[in-house]
UniProtKB/TrEMBL annotation:
<dbReference type="InterPro" id="IPR050583">
    <property type="entry name" value="Mycobacterial_A85_antigen"/>
</dbReference>
<protein>
    <recommendedName>
        <fullName>Esterase</fullName>
    </recommendedName>
</protein>
<keyword id="KW-0732">Signal</keyword>
<dbReference type="InterPro" id="IPR000801">
    <property type="entry name" value="Esterase-like"/>
</dbReference>
<feature type="signal peptide">
    <location>
        <begin position="1"/>
        <end position="20"/>
    </location>
</feature>
<dbReference type="Pfam" id="PF00756">
    <property type="entry name" value="Esterase"/>
</dbReference>
<dbReference type="InterPro" id="IPR011990">
    <property type="entry name" value="TPR-like_helical_dom_sf"/>
</dbReference>
<dbReference type="InterPro" id="IPR029058">
    <property type="entry name" value="AB_hydrolase_fold"/>
</dbReference>
């Protein structure tokens, strides 16, 4: 039976001062104890909840699990916070797993060079049978789970992928010691070659100046993956230029997020779709992203709003309206999307429609507590639009 004990609130939040207000709520972190029959021990985890978690009791979240919380938690949590703050990725619940006996926890087979290694499979059972259900019971999760590990934590991450890939939707393995235990991960990769990985995403990276066998064995592991070409696995392996075993973590983490949630290039692609196919092309583009990426598709609202603006400014009015219709349907509380739509209409000469839409943006912003300076900018824009009406410009 799983027993979770709340140990207390952590008041640790490492964010730049300029971003402290939107992110710094003191009750976002808590420590929890898990009494584990599988391990025969009590383990600790730390959980960070997204900003505003308590405000919407119906909202659910993806969860990122990470090993070596005693070292990695602040960096990983702050990085995910940063990307979520700028709309690149969804807000995540972050769960840090403490590994007080990390050699035993993270390495699946004994290695004579590293004492106590070899209990990694037991630790996987603890994670999948005790931690995952416990987190799902305690917090509002949506079934999307990601796993992050570095060094021996990367070994654990890859071992989980090769043993039971359905436990997580995405895997991040940085600086993985694929050479450990006489390359046991290579053997497990061969054994899993015919498995369907169910659309899992995998990002692997090693630092260019990482010592020992980590870089060459990482390359060999990736080469074997390419040869086997396992079904349903979207994977990337990179050598991070100029980074070592430790500095690879922040750089690799950013690149891993971009692989899991492909946000680059959305604006240009949507403009091209609208120019080629009009409103139908816009709708087809959104449908293709959903079909191809599923939960990994996170529309970049500002970039896509600016795509709508560009389409309207270039005479593709129906395509532009389709962009904004889609974004407003998906993000009904996004004030800036509505404001950019008003600007597009004003730029296109439809001044009265622009006034109507900026009025909607002002009303929505007042309801949502949008920053006062932005609301004043909307009101100033409305005044300029009224001036154009009085001068007989637009319609």
């Amino acid at each position: 039976m799983r027993v979770f004990h709340l140990l207390g609130v952590l008041l640790v939040l490492l964010v730049p001062p300029a971003m402290a207000d939107p992110l710094a709520t003191p009750d976002r972190r808590e420590r929890v104890e898990i009494d584990s029959p599988i391990l025969g021990a009590t383990r600790q985890i730390v959980v960070q909840l997204p900003e505003g978690y308590a405000d919407d009791p119906d909202r659910t979240y993806p969860v990122l699990f990470l090993t070596d919380a005693q070292w990695q938690f602040d960096l990983v949590a702050a990085t995910f916070d940063y990307h979520a703050y700028w709309g690149r990725i969804p807000d995540h619940i972050i769960v840090g797993l403490y590994n007080p006996v990390r050699n035993a926890d993270l390495v699946p087979e004994p290695d004579p060079h590293y004492p106590s290694t070899g209990s990694g499979d037991t630790y996987l059972a603890h994670v999948t049978q005790e931690v995952l259900p416990g987190i799902a019971e305690r917090y509002r999760t949506n079934g999307i789970r990601l796993l992050f590990g570095h060094s021996f934590g990367g070994v654990m991450t890859l071992n989980q992928l090769l043993s039971r890939p359905d436990a997580f939707k995405a895997y991040i393995a940085l600086g993985s010691s694929t050479w450990v235990s006489e390359r046991v991960l290579f053997d497990r990769l061969e054994a899993a070659a015919d498995r369907d990985f169910g659309g899992a995403a995998l990002y692997m990276a090693v630092g260019e100046t990482d010592g020992g066998a980590t870089v060459p064995d990482g390359e060999l592991f990736a080469e074997r993956l390419e040869t086997l070409s396992p079904q349903g696995l979207d994977w990337v392996f990179e050598i991070t230029p100029g980074e070592n075993h430790f500095t690879n973590v922040p750089e690799g983490l950013h690149r891993a997020i971009a692989h899991i949630y492909p946000f680059a290039g959305q604006q240009a692609a949507l403009i091209a779709a609208g120019e080629a196919g009009g409103a139908a092309g816009v709708q087809a583009w959104f449908a293709a992203q959903e079909a191809g990426l599923g939960w990994r598709f996170v529309p970049q609202t500002m970039e896509l709003s600016l795509a709508g603006f560009a389409l309207g400014n270039d005479g593709h009015g129906e395509a532009a309206q389709a962009v904004f219709d889609t974004l407003e349907h998906r993000f009904p509380d996004n004030v800036e999307v509505v404001a950019v739509r008003a600007n597009m209409l004003g730029q296109s000469g439809d001044v009265q429609a622009a006034i109507d839409v900026i009025d909607r943006a002002i009303a929505l912003g007042e309801r949502e507590g949008h920053p006062a300076d932005r609301l004043q900018a909307f009101r100033d824009y409305r005044s300029r639009l009224e001036g154009r009406i009085e001068e007989g410009q637009g319609h």
